[in-house]
Amino acid sequence: MLLAFLLRPLVSSSFLDECCAWKSSLTQLHMEKGSKAKVLCLHGFRTSGSFLKKQISKWHPSIFQQFDMDIPDGIFPAGGKSEIEGIFPPPYFEWFQFNKEFTEYTNLDECISHLCDYMVKNGPFDGLLGFSQGATLSALLIGYQAQGKVLNDHPPIKFMVSISGSKFRDPSICSVAYKDPIKVKSVHFVGEKDWLKVPSEELAAAFEEPVIIRHPQGHTVPRLGLHSKLFTMYVHIVIDCE
């Protein structure tokens, strides 16, 4: 009910006033706590932390006032041409490598080990945010943690934001990471023109009661308008209700 209320398509002026009052009270609560929600943000394939920062900079400024966003680079230099060459300056990075069918992966175990060490050293993190390869990897980490495979020395992740993510297709990974519905609160941005639209929906289905925000664009971080503010409030509610 709460999610339907937050994400309904028709918004009245009274609803906006209520949202503003609601957000004000949540902001005050976090000021009293003296802390922000810490979020690890993982960029897409053959891009960079700097590029992801630029991608999400189109969101409402209130998000960045309330969240402490850690945006590192991938651990491997790009092994081929980047789709953002000529759009955003190098260097470019990737988290791991994969075959055309996305069924075989190279350096994935090393990547997972690196990120787990990073989270313990630089966390704890309340949530994960990822775009494309970063979203796919974020969901894997959360699914693995839920099954006790990784991050046993890190507090449970409370929420995830997936933008154009997908599931791994290796059965040996799926049987662990998606064995049970992932109970972490999650928001999934799905683009109507995204070549990963269906895989993004399949990833959302791996979570318990996922929130899906659809947009008319392609494989990109969308501009959200009002939904950006509502998204911020939703994540605050998740954290405050823990």
TrEMBL record:
- Where does the record place the Serine hydrolase domain? 35-224
Spell out the InterPro entries in the cross-references: FSH-like_dom
| Record keyword Signal present | yes
Alphabetized, the UniProt keywords read: Signal
Matches recorded under Pfam families: FSH1
Give the PANTHER family listed for this entry.
ESTERASE C25G4.2-LIKE (PTHR22778:SF55), OVARIAN CANCER GENE-2 PROTEIN-RELATED (PTHR22778)
Q: What is this protein called?
A: Serine hydrolase domain-containing protein
Give the classification, highest ranks: Eukaryota, Viridiplantae, Streptophyta, Embryophyta, Tracheophyta
Q: Where is the signal peptide?
A: 1-21
